[in-house]
Design goal:
The protein has 281 residues and is α/β, with parallel strands linked by helices. The chain contains twelve helices and eight strands. The radius of gyration is 20 Å and the shape is globular.
């Protein structure tokens, strides 16, 4: 009996092990964002890929839908790390898309951390959690968490600040010590890359996106998309900036929105086509 039991345990272990390794792209557990009290903090590096501009427009589109129009959110521009290359000026687009509900960490680096800290403090004080969609590197997040440590315990911050990252490149261009700090002091979640579909998150990058934005009927969103596309075409590959091939081909890239979808528990979107079919009106 002992031999049979041991053999059974070994077989069961091998089955579980093989199954776990054979299915690496299963959808991650969806987030538990509480619309009533949590804060969605979306942080864009804007250096040097212009995909952040498309992501801003896509985020504005999502937030304009009735289901998510009441979300408490804030956007931050210029949350880059140690990568080389020129910045992509996004201020006009951020202003059009978010009004006063954004912070310029590139133009005002000293004031940005304090301003976002105050916003985060209010949410934490009212019992809400912070969900950070890391559309870039984590250096700014590290500064923010360090500033919060003067008011909140490490245990509280580790449980109530959720950082979601989808990009290996973003992790690799974060200061190593800052990335380790964030992973050690927050609820850090790495999800599959939003540049590809079929891996557990939506694939929001396509070189065949002509006509998708024509489905939008909201005049404000039309202006936002027009400006996002114009700016991305102007700066894509310019003066040594990264050349986004999908955008060069006339397509779209808002891959960083995959993190927001994970946070909000949106698991039924596959690609850009389905995104516009769902949220364009």
């Amino acid at each position: 009996m002992k031999v049979k039991s041991s053999l059974g345990l070994v077989v069961a272990f091998l089955v579980v092990t093989l199954y776990s390794h054979a299915t690496p792209t299963l959808s991650p557990q969806k987030g538990t964002f509480n619309i009533a009290k949590d804060l969605l903090l979306v942080q864009f590096d804007c250096k040097t890929d212009v995909d952040d501009l498309h992501t801003v427009a896509a985020l504005a589109t999502l937030l304009a839908s009735p289901e998510y129009s009441n979300i408490h959110y804030h956007a931050v521009a210029g949350t880059y790390g140690i990568q080389e290359g020129l910045y992509v000026p996004p201020n006009d687009l951020f202003q059009l898309a978010f009004g006063q509900n954004w912070t310029d960490a590139h133009g005002q680096p000293k004031d940005a951390t304090k301003r976002v800290q105050n916003i985060v403090q209010k949410t934490l004080a009212h019992g809400g959690d912070i969900w950070i969609a890391e559309a870039g590197q984590s250096d700014f997040t590290a500064q923010l968490v360090k500033a919060l440590q003067s008011e909140w315990s490490d245990t509280t911050l580790a449980q109530r600040i959720h950082v979601v990252q989808h990009s290996d490149w973003n992790e690799n261009t974060t200061s190593p010590e800052q990335l380790q700090f964030v992973k050690s002091h927050t609820a850090y979640q790495k999800i599959p890359d939003g540049n590809a579909s079929g891996n557990g998150t939506p694939g929001f990058r396509t070189a065949r996106a002509v006509g998708y934005t024509n489905q939008i009927t909201n005049p404000q969103l039309i202006q936002i998309w027009q400006l996002a596309i114009a700016l991305s075409n102007e700066y894509n590959g310019k003066e040594g900036r990264y050349n986004n091939e999908a955008i060069s081909a006339g397509g779209l890239d808002f891959s960083d929105l995959s993190e927001v979808c994970w946070i909000l528990g949106i698991q039924d979107l596959k690609d850009t086509k389905q995104f516009f079919a769902t949220y364009s009106n």
